[in-house]
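User: I'm writing a tutorial on reading structure tokens. Could you give me a worked example: one chain, its sequence, then its tokens, then a sentence or two explaining what the tokens reveal?
Assistant: Sure. Here is the example chain.
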Amino acid sequence: MRVSVTYDLRNPPQWRVPFDRFYREALDHMAFVEELGFDGIWLQQHHFEEAGYGPPFAAFAGALAVKTQRVRVGSYIKILPLYHPLLVAEEMAVLDNLLGGRLDVGVGVGHRMLEFKALDVPHKQRPSRMEEGIEIMRRAWTEDRVTFEGRRFSFQDVEVQPKPVQKPHPPLWMAARTVAAAQRAGRLRCHLLPGTNDPDVFRAYAAALRDGGEDPAKYQVTMGLSVTLTREDPEKVWQRLRPHSEYRWQFYDTIIEEFGDPPLQSGHSEVAGQAGDAQDRYRDRELIGDPDTILRAIERLRETWSWDGLGVTEVIVRTPPPGVPLEEHRSSFELFAREIMPVLRRW
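And here are its predicted structure tokens:
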């Protein structure tokens, strides 16, 4: 099993530090997690958000090509319907060359109305733009010249260079929170970045793969976790993290509600035996405890995320919630690498 870290790179106004310092410290932390032995770094991205959520992927991935030597680097996620897929294919091919074949391409349809309005992209076209976009990127990476006629994109005899280092192309991942999105990911033969613990989503993904003649066991599935490893009383730690955690999760709840999508189902503390006070709305989205407690929790969570021949192949650990300095959680990452990662590697 791979073990990776994801960064949202949010710098909220109420806890803000100068962005140049913030980015330098983030890059230093990414080099630090590589030294600890983590397998990958997944970079999140949104646009036009008060905390500067997820700067352009290419900028940070390019910096990581110089800053790191071994870890894989992935987009978590690129909102593909917002862009022309030829440009995305070109960008990702360049990055795969800079990274020496260490790139993972994660895409999603997007779930924030403001971004679609600001960039003048009709949000109802998300599914069709995604489907055409995946086909165009694959062809741009593997064919000398591409001609395409579709509902959303049309072009003649276009050559995209360079070609990726990885053959036939970098691994393609797709985010999914709903049954329809999971079916799309399976139908388009993408690995799965689930944004939910809803078993129907996993079943739909496995069924779509099988319907297309694919073996679900050959595909990768991630499990995202918000983890704080500590020897302190977990509830005291939660009280310190609480305003930051609320800031993190309220963003998602708000944009999902604006889009009319189903509510977020990503709580895991209750499954792991860490349910807090019912008044603490976001407590069940944070795992806090010593290594033994967290390891038992991850084992139970892994069992709930295994459906129809699928199994978790990668654990993605979130960095601390916005406004908490990365340096303050240095010991948490060290404990994870020393006490938990060796066990996960054997799964």
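What the tokens reveal: The domain at 2-345 is CATH 3.20.20.30 (TIM Barrel). Confidence is low (pLDDT under 50) at residues 270-276.
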